[in-house]
Specification:
The protein is of the alpha+beta class. It is built from six helices and five strands. A three-stranded antiparallel sheet has the order 1-4-5, with no helix packed on it. Strands 2-3 form a two-stranded antiparallel sheet. Strand 4 and strand 5 form a beta hairpin.
Length: about 170
C-alpha cells in the first residue's frame, strides 16, 4: 500500500518562465552575498592560500544556507517570494532538508538544459531535480485539488532508466 499524497491543479504548478525568474533572482542574490563576504574577507586576510580556502568555504556555506535551508523554510528565498511560489513535498508540506540538499546537488551537477526541458512536458511541471527530490513548485496560494496515492513509475532519461515517485489521483 502506498502512502497518501496530494496533487494540485495544473495551473497551480509554476511554469518555465516563472521558474527561470526564480532561478535568476536566487542565483544573483546568493552570488552577491557570497561576493560581498569574500571581499570583506579579503580585507582581513592577506594570504592568498588562506583567502582561497576562506572564499570556497564562504561560498559553500552561503549557497547551502540559501538554496537548502532558506528555500525549505517557511520564509522562502527572494526568488520564490517575488514569483509568489513555494516548494512542497508529495504530501503538500515543506520538504525536509535532506531532500532539498539532494535537489540542490542535482541543480549544481545535473544536466541543467535537460532539467528545464523536462519541466515543459511534465504534467506536474516538475523538473528532474523535483522528481528526484519528490517536490513540486507551486503558486503560494495553491491548495490541493485532491488526495491520491504515491506510485512509482520508470522513466528513461539520457539512456538511463530511473524510478520516480508520482501522485495518482484517487478515483473516488
Amino acid at each position: 500500500m502506498s502512502e497518501p499524497a496530494v496533487y494540485y491543479a495544473y495551473t497551480d504548478h509554476v511554469g518555465v518562465w516563472r521558474r527561470l525568474m526564480i532561478e535568476w533572482i536566487d542565483v544573483s542574490v546568493a552570488g552577491l552575498i557570497s561576493t560581498l563576504l569574500s571581499v570583506f574577507a579579503m580585507v582581513l586576510v592577506r594570504s592568498a592560500e588562506v583567502m582561497a580556502l576562506i572564499t570556497l568555504v564562504l561560498w559553500g556555506v552561503v549557497w547551502f544556507a540559501y538554496f537548502v535551508v532558506l528555500k525549505a523554510s517557511r520564509f522562502r528565498t527572494l526568488g520564490y517570494l517575488a514569483a509568489r511560489a513555494r516548494i512542497v513535498n508529495l504530501q503538500g508540506e515543506r520538504p525536509r532538508f535532506a531532500w532539498m540538499f539532494l535537489r540542490f546537488l542535482f541543480a549544481l551537477y545535473g544536466p541543467i538544459g535537460l532539467d528545464l526541458l523536462w519541466l515543459s512536458s511534465d504534467p506536474h511541471r516538475q523538473t528532474l531535480r523535483d522528481k528526484f527530490a519528490h517536490t513540486f513548485v507551486i503558486r503560494d496560494t495553491a491548495r490541493p485539488a485532491g488526495v491520491g496515492q504515491v506510485v512509482y513509475q520508470t522513466c528513461t532519461v539520457c539512456a538511463w532508466t530511473l524510478l520516480f515517485a508520482d501522485v495518482r489521483p484517487d478515483r473516488t
